[in-house]
Amino acid sequence: MDWQNMLFQGWPGIARTLLVGTLAYVTLVLFLRISGKRTLSKLNAFDLVVTVALGSTLSAILLQKSIALAEGATALGLLILLQYLVTFASVRSNSVAKLIRSEPTLLVRSGSFCHDAMMRQRITEDEIMSAVRSNGSQGLDEVEAVVLESDGTLSIIKG
């Protein structure tokens, strides 16, 4: 096993990583600023996938010598453009919005758990009670409803 080559392959590779990494990072930040606040909002499932893809692409640009900065910047721009187009369409079309975003789910109604909904959403009574306490309520008798929002947060509606 070639330990020396595995641990250090020379200064040119490190210099490339520093230069291309910095430029790719600046490019990503510029693209995210241009694309608007929606790109950086609380994540729903679709946004999470785009964010992971952006991170993976940035990593590939940094570490793979076969990917030029221009190609990587194009890939980053494409991902952000596609996200922009999908969110643009979902704001203007209910059918597209239903495809992309999940609907909120009622987990507690009038102080009682909705067990079927909790099972479908894989959420426990303890998780709901933690959110209720974090919201300043002592128990379910003070809560009219608990809603699991499309971004994964729990909204507490006091009674």
Structural notes for this entry:
The chain has 159 residues and is of the alpha+beta class. Helix content is 61%, strand content 11%. It has seven helices and four strands, in the order H-H-H-H-H-E-E-H-H-E-E. The protein has a four-stranded antiparallel sheet with strand order 2-1-3-4. Strand 1 and strand 2 form a beta hairpin. Helix 2 packs antiparallel against helix 3, helix 2 packs parallel to helix 4 and helix 4 packs across helix 5. The protein is elongated and about 65 Å long. The relative contact order is 0.10. The mean pLDDT is 84.
Write the layout of secondary structure elements.
Layout: H1 3-7, H2 11-35, H3 45-63, H4 69-92, H5 94-100, E1 105-109, E2 112-113, H6 115-121, H7 125-134, E3 143-148, E4 154-158
Antiparallel strand pairs: 1-2, 1-3, 3-4
Helix pairs in contact: 2-3, 2-4, 3-4, 4-5
**SS class:** alpha+beta
Based on DSSP secondary structure assignment, what is the total number of beta strands?
Answer: 4
Task: Outline the biggest β-sheet.
Answer: 4 strands, antiparallel
SSE string, helix = H, strand = E? HHHHHEEHHEE
Bin the strand percentage.
Answer: 5-15%
Helix amount: 55-70%
Shape from CA axes? elongated
Q: Which quaternary structure do these chains form?
A: single chain
The number of helical elements comes to 7
Mean pLDDT: 84
Rg (C-alpha, Å): 22 Å
Report how far the terminal alpha carbons are from each other: 67 Å
Low-pLDDT windows of residues? none
Strand order of the biggest β-sheet: 2-1-3-4
